[in-house]
Here is the input.
Amino acid sequence: SIALYFGVLVGIAYFTSKGADSGSYFLGNKQSPWYAVAFGMLGDSLSGVTFISVPGAVGGAQFSYLQLVLGYMAGYLIISRVLLPLYYRLNLTSIYAYLEGRYGRNAQKTGAFFFILSRLLGAAGRLYLAATVIQLFVFDAIGIPFWLSVTIIIALIFAYTYRGGIKTLVWTDTFQSTILLLAVLCSVVVIASKMDLSLGGVVNQIAQSDYSKVFFWDWAPKTFFFKQFIGGAFIAVVMTGLDQNMMQKNLSCKSLPDAQKNMEWFSVVMALVNVCFLSLGALLWIYATQIQLTLPTNALGKPITDYLFPTLAFNQLGTAAGLLFILGLTAATFSSADSVLTTLTTSFYHDFLELHKKTASEAYKERYRHAIHIGFAVLLLGVILLFKLFNNAAIIDTVLLIANYTYGPLLGLFFFGILTRRGASDKWIPWIALAAPALCWVVNSHSQAWWGGYQFGNELLLLNGALTAAMLWMAKAPRRVVNMPQ
Here is the structure.
């Protein structure tokens, strides 16, 4: 099934990459249909984290994740109405070119650095989760070691992305999102059948369980509603609106209205899909309790909730469930990493090497582009192997924690620039962007001792951005005028 799946991706890449040039690779020649971009973004946003970690997390966090999703919807509206008009007005390819116009070249490179760091770690975490599960249930049985299985996965992704870039990804991601959604919906049907439940029975079973609680009002834990909602809104803004990986697809739409329709429809569908994943998680936990399932444990002796879905799919729910799981996870694995290689390449090409400004042949630039693409593929492999050594938490928690620290400076840089008319010294911006996350780490480490048990959730991102903005205010300089990038 994996071989057939990969064959379809290669076929799509073959047809979409014909005659591909830099315009195709970076922005799809600005001819991407908005509905294809919107649907394809689902697979990139959901990835293996949602497919495995969200259902597993229901056992401890119930439906509290939905509070975060509601915040996402508010954040997507901000992107649609504030950020997309700015990016289209400036005709950007790399969104961090805005920072050069607003502050200077140090700011552009700082923004690009934090994007590369954030996306590299986030993509590695998502791929690590999917690859670990495939390893446990597939590759271990045939004697293939983890490092080799991950290398194979990244090599396959490289094979269908290195030429066509965004023009190819719009359509491969649409295909992968379709497979991912079909897999989760069919998985709900399979487990409902196993439990002899009708559609109405599924709804009643979930509603009457201990897992369906959505809203939490205790202010101290991470599940407090306002922590989740506000944190979710800002996570959406930074992980989508200030993220080259997600915005590059939006900027490939034909016009600003198309890009806005894409983002707003995406937010609605995204919320509905997450309800499906949470519902699947509740059913899995109910069934696991009924059969007294014991999960593998991590180095700390705690059950690995990320293994709930695959353990049941392969050992308890039958062949159909195992096949659906592999197809869904394969879609999640490829869609969570393929666009990352392309957009990391774009940012490094534009923001650091500035090759788009150099007078050189298309063949010369293409060689550099391919070399950067290969370099990031190798780097991604290395980071995944480090995750294998050190990660002990649910991957969704790890990914969101990384986002709180690494996207905070981007939040501060962009919104200080958009919401104020004050200038900031470009030479101090790299140091400010390092100092704010460091201060956040100190505050987060001591918050329970200092404030009566208070635990930071995703509002740590807001604190990070606010500290960045405050230090930008203190580093006063004449305000620059944002010019059209060359």
